From TrEMBL:
Signal peptide: none annotated. This is Cation diffusion facilitator family transporter. It comes from the Bacteria. Belongs to the cation diffusion facilitator (CDF) transporter (TC 2.A.4) family. The keyword S-adenosyl-L-methionine does not apply. The chain crosses the membrane at residues 12-32, 38-59, 80-101, 113-134, 154-173, 188-206. It comes from Pseudonocardia alaniniphila. Residues 12-213 form the Cation efflux protein transmembrane domain.
Length: 304
């Protein structure tokens, strides 16, 4: 329960309840106006509700820490949820794209442009507000789940902007006596928006898989880790240092091996523990939950 009261938990719950409201409103509004684009927005929101709830559960699970079943912690649930969430949204976008192309080939669709335009305004404003809330939380040190949620809402807001722009075009066409062309606006916008949105879940899938496969973290984070270890190496006059790092959810795993020679100022077990404490203090500046393993050897082959 404490997790949902955390900043990340509150942000995810805001996203969940807003998505639920959008889902109901969009489906009713879309069916009433005959707009497939609004129906797509509603289906997208329905998918987001279930996936956002999964994100909340994953966040709770990840924050429980290690135990006998999860000796290395539960942070892998975060990237796993991101991958599932992104894959589901990508599938929905592909389905919408195929359906829209079919409607275009069938001659388009008649819609109530006035009411559809009103929906575009409401959806754009609401989406922008929620996107702003989530992006602020993400910049303030939010989890990967919050960043994924923020990216999703940015994509949804862009969808709403496209909805609004498309209905403005349809209204202009109707007012100028080109109703036959206005029939193509709704399916054409569905096709364009769903195709344009596909890169967003695709990037999330790639980043999630990188963490599940325990690949190296982002280049800027790797550089900071390497610089920190190099400073410690120089401070204690170690011959060499080797660093391995990976990021899994909100946890950064770092394994460091120092090669000790006769000139090194740390030679005993107690002095090695002082090095570990120094390195741990320096890693705290990364503002990232860090799981650290530090080894020492006089033979570099054991460090490779």
């Amino acid at each position: 329960m404490a997790t949902t009261r955390s900043p990340d938990g509150r942000a995810l719950l805001i996203s969940t309840w807003t998505s639920a409201a959008f889902a109901v409103v969009a489906l009713v509004w879309g069916l009433a106006t005959g707009s497939q684009l609004i129906v797509f927005d509603g289906l997208y929101s329905f998918a987001s509700v279930g996936l956002s709830l999964a994100a909340v559960l994953a966040l709770r699970t990840a924050r429980k820490g290690p135990d006998e079943r999860y000796p290395w912690g539960r942070e892998a649930w975060e990237p796993l949820t991101v991958v599932v969430k992104a894959a589901a949204l990508a599938g929905l976008s592909i389905y919408a794209l195929v359906s829209a192309v079919g409607e275009i080939l069938a001659g388009g669709r008649d819609i109530d442009v006035g009411w559809a335009l009103a929906y575009g305004v409401v959806a754009t404003v609401a989406g922008a507000v929620v996107s702003l809330i989530l992006r602020r939380r993400a910049r303030a040190g939010g989890s990967d789940l919050v960043r994924a949620e923020a990216a999703e809402w940015v994509g949804d807001t862009l969808l709403s902007v496209a909805v609004l722009a498309g209905f403005v075009v349809a209204l202009v066409l109707e007012q100028t006596g080109h109703s036959d062309l206005a029939r193509y606006v709704d399916p054409a916008m569905v096709a364009l928006v769903s195709a344009a949105f596909l890169p967003v879940p695709a990037k999330l899938v790639v980043s999630g898989f990188r963490e599940l496969l325990m690949m190296s973290p982002a280049p800027h984070l790797q550089a900071r880790i390497a610089a920190t270890v190099s400073e410690v190496e120089r401070t204690y006059r170690f011959a060499e240092s080797f660093v391995r790092a990976s990021k899994v959810g909100g946890r950064l795993d770092v394994a460091v091996e120092f090669v000790v020679d006769d000139d090194s100022t740390a030679q005993t077990v107690h002095q090695f523990d002082d090095v570990r404490a120094d390195l741990e203090a320096r890693f705290e500046a990364l503002d990232q939950l860090t799981s650290m393993s530090v080894g020492f050897t006089a033979d570099r082959r054991w460090a490779l």
